């Protein structure tokens, strides 16, 4: 039995070492990703569920490394957050998204805004309002065309500091969306306290509609609450015609998901916008 234990222990450390090596390799590669032009943005339309017309777009980060291949955001974003690399990467994302949006507006596309995902570390760093202000000036994008998506968790740590930062962002003229709404274990009182414009219903509540009665009830309740609080509402992860019908029936103002479009590169987005919006 002793021998078994030792074997297990050695096996376990070897696994850990392999994981740590992978992580270190990925971290080293991620450090050079901006300079090596390995990052890009995909855009997913956020549409009016009735007409399918795109109203907003969400910028979603992609990383392609020659050795690691296409690395999914769910793998490299947590690493970027743990290593603070999310600060330069997040700045790159903001700038690129604002540049692309400026081009879309200049070309006459009737889009209201681009949503950019913001990590809690970027909010904690109190100069986010300064950074956003500078990027808006540099890219010439009007602030009303920029929306920042934050999660409920952001609102929970250091609420006073976060409140000040969000108020400054609002003062610039950008809008704020709570992403993954309903998953954050936080008290709803923050909706009163923080200057939030829009709630985005987490896709876990949309996925099993119409088969799961509880999810339907939760989605209905969130839509009704957003309406009475005069907040915008977006349902995310819409994949089927049945889900679309449900959202139309509930008068949900916006929807996002594979049913309408996957996240696509900028050139593909231009095609999508031209196909869907003209005539
Ligand atoms: P998120 O912000 O909740 O983004 C939505 C995710 O759902 C995206 O995954 C999108 O591709 C996916 N999605 C959209 N429609 C559907 C659908 O109909 N069905 C299903 N199953 N999935 C759908 P993605 O692009 O892999 O991004 C994953 C997460 O990575 C994002 O979740 C966000 O938390 C994070 N992320 C992505 N880009 C950025 C970024 O620029 N900065 C930061 N801080 N985080 C980012
Ligand atoms: Ca998001
Ligand atoms: Ca989300
Ligand atoms: Ca998410």
TrEMBL record:
Superkingdom of this protein's organism? Bacteria
Domain EAL, by residue range, is 23-277
Please identify the protein, giving its name as recorded.
cyclic-guanylate-specific phosphodiesterase
Q: Please report the organism this UniProt entry assigns to the protein.
A: Amphritea balenae
Parent-protein residues present: 561 to 839 of 839
């Amino acid at each position: 039995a002793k021998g078994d234990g030792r074997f297990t222990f050695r096996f376990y450390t070897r696994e850990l070492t392999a994981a740590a090596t992978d992580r270190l390799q990925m971290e080293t590669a991620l450090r050079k990703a901006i300079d090596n032009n390995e990052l890009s943005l995909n855009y997913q339309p956020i549409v009016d569920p009735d007409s399918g017309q795109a109203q907003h777009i969400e910028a979603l980060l992609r990383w392609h490394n020659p050795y690691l291949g296409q690395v999914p955001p769910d793998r490299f974003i947590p690493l970027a957050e743990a290593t603070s690399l999310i600060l330069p990467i997040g700045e790159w994302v903001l700038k690129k998204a604002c540049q692309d949006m400026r081009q879309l507006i200049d070309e006459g596309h009737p889009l209201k805004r681009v949503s950019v995902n913001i990590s809690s570390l970027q909010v904690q760093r109190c100069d986010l309002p300064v950074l956003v202000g500078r990027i808006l000036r540099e890219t010439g994008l009007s602030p009303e065309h920029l929306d920042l998506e934050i999660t409920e968790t952001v609102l929970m740590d250091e609420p006073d500091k976060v409140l000040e930062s969000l108020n400054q962002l609002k003062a610039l003229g950008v809008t704020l969306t709570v992403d993954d709404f309903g998953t954050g274990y936080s008290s709803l009182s923050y909706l009163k306290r923080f200057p939030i414009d829009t709630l985005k219903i987490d896709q876990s509540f949309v996925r099993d509609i119409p088969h799961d009665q509880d999810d339907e009830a939760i989605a209905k309740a969130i839509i009704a609450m957003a309406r009475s609080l005069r907040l915008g509402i977006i349902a995310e992860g819409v994949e089927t015609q049945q889900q679309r019908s449900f959202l139309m029936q509930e008068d949900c103002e916006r929807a996002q998901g594979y049913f309408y479009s996957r996240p696509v590169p900028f050139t593909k987005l231009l095609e999508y916008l031209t196909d869907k919006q003209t005539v």
